[in-house]
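Minutes, project check-in
Item: structure for the 179-residue chain
Input as provided by the requester:
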Amino acid sequence: MLNLPNLISLARIILVPLFIILSIHQHFGWALLIFAIAAVSDAVDGLFARLLEQRTVLGSYLDPVADKLLTSSAYVTLAILGILPGWLTVIVVSRDVIIILGIMILFLTSHPLEIRPSLASKLTTILQFTTVVSTLASKYAFSVPFLIDFLIWGTAVVTVISGLQYIGRGIRIFNQGTP
């Protein structure tokens, strides 16, 4: 069902190419604005889904896909531009690939699957978004190097922890056996 929360998730997906183009052309102020709108829309679509009682199966897939597209695109683009370290991008993208592969394996082996983010996963998303916003802000307006360094390392640590948590969940589900 295509409702308001799902439309917001779709809008976030549509903003991804615009963000990439603006970043490549080093229009960091506009890229920051687009990324911030997309990041805020992540919280807004979930809030609307709960408040309007419009949670859907489509939304449970569309929202994380939109997040992964936005996050991966931002980290890859900013790493290519030399703005974020490549090693951090590898960590962020690898976690997303591992999560997607795990979901595919569980789905293909007919294991029950319920997509629910953990607290570590939510913190990971917040830190990943904050790192991109702060990095873009440092290119556009002002720079606070120690804050950027803290965010980069904090994002790396929490992303790894979250990834390991998802791997553990996947192994537990898989070991429960095929229904």
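Outcome recorded: The two ends are 28 Å apart (CA to CA).
No further action items on this chain.
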